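QA checklist item 7 of 12: single-chain prediction sanity check.
[x] sequence parsed
[x] length recorded as 233
[x] structure emitted
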Amino acid sequence: MRRADYRTQQISWAEYEANIDNFGKLLDLPIEPKAFVAHVKNWLLEITQKTDQSFPNNQSVRLEEGRAVLKRPKKKVDSVKLAQIKSLIAERIKPVNLLDILTDTELWLNWTQYFRLLSGHDSKIEDSVSRYLTATFCYGCNLGSSQTANSLSNFDRKQIAYVNQNHISLPSLEKAIYRVINAYNQFSLPKFWGSGKRASADGTKWDIYEQNLLAEYHIRYGGYGGIAYYHGA
């Protein structure tokens, strides 16, 4: 399996020279090589000194044969107020079928208009919208065509797989996603999280089979898997 080369993903020297000054000001970092190295060394020294000073009172780490051992953290107990909030949410929000949500958004936004034969010709399959919705539900939930066909009586597994292989491409999927995101951004709820001009990202490692094109060993997480990044405004 071929691994990605991080060096090919780095910015060019021309782009570096054009943006390094603003980058240094934005993060309050020195941009000269020697000054940057000195800054990082001092920062690491401060961190290690603070760690050494706080170690005697640290209840989560102990030393065994010269090695640091992390203790298993105690399970957090949910507060009574959190249980009350969950109860109120359950009372006020009724369960909604995922297929119903897909159908409603399609009626409002017509996002399946971007799905068609990869050749560019108009679709000639019967009830194309229903088949597009079924395929989106199938692969969006990672069910697979056989499992979806067992759950829904409208189409068999070959019909579902055919739509995915011949009518849905990455560019068309991106257009549909953009349409839904832009429509959602018209609501007031996203504005409560910020102006929308900046976004934060959080990575989560998902365990998957090692014999997988998406799997790789992550030093930070200590195992094989795939990293999913979640963006929040």
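[x] summary fact logged: The chain has three domains: 11-56, 98-182, 197-233.
[ ] second reviewer sign-off
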